Amino acid sequence: MESADVAARGAEFSVVVGARRTIAHSPSVVYALLRDLRHHWPLLGADLVEAGIVDGSDEASAELLLRGPIPGIERRVVTRITYDIPETAFGGEAIAGSTRAAIDWRLSPVAGEATEVSFDVGIDP
């Protein structure tokens, strides 16, 4: 899963989704936020999910414990960054049980100290 292009590898996955948004902050600020693996779940709209690092051996990998949306439901997700081009792109994998996903984030500066963020994920449940 070291490719920087999930969309081009779509046949590998059962589901491929993507999103794009412009954020009113510089690429360096957006990169610093996204590069912290704990921030991804709330950013993806999982507002009923709590995430905390259970065990992270370095900044490129973490084991997250997700709780919710129903009390008593938990899931462990192991995440790992496999490539990183600071302030431009990074991606990796997330594994939860038998489900695996490849994830790509791309950041492009736009006028006025803003950043266009593109996100692609390929999921194999």
Describe it.
With 125 residues, the protein is mostly beta strands. 10% of the residues lie in helices and 54% in strands. The chain has helices at 27-35, 40-43; strands spanning 15-23, 50-58, 61-67, 74-85, 89-96, 99-110, 114-124. Strands 1-7-6-5-4-3-2 form a 7-stranded antiparallel beta sheet, with helices on one face. The longest helix is centred in the first third of the chain and has 9 residues, at 27-35. The chain is globular and about 45 Å long. The chain starts with 14 loop residues before the first strand and ends with a strand. The relative contact order is 0.28. The mean pLDDT is 80.
Secondary-structure blueprint of this entry?
Elements: E1 15-23, H1 27-35, H2 40-43, E2 50-58, E3 61-67, E4 74-85, E5 89-96, E6 99-110, E7 114-124
Antiparallel strand pairs: 1-7, 2-3, 3-4, 4-5, 5-6, 6-7
Question: Short description, anyone?
Answer:
With 125 residues, the protein is mostly beta strands.
The side-by-side strand order for the widest beta sheet comes to 1-7-6-5-4-3-2
The CA-CA distance between the termini, in Å, is: 16 Å
Main beta-sheet annotation: 7 strands, antiparallel
The amount of helix comes to: 10-25%
Strand content: over 45%
Content-based structural category: mainly beta
Radius of gyration: 15 Å
Order of helices and strands: EHHEEEEEE
- So how many helices? 2
Principal-axis shape equals globular
Count all strands and give the number: 7
The low-pLDDT segments are: none
Mean pLDDT: 80
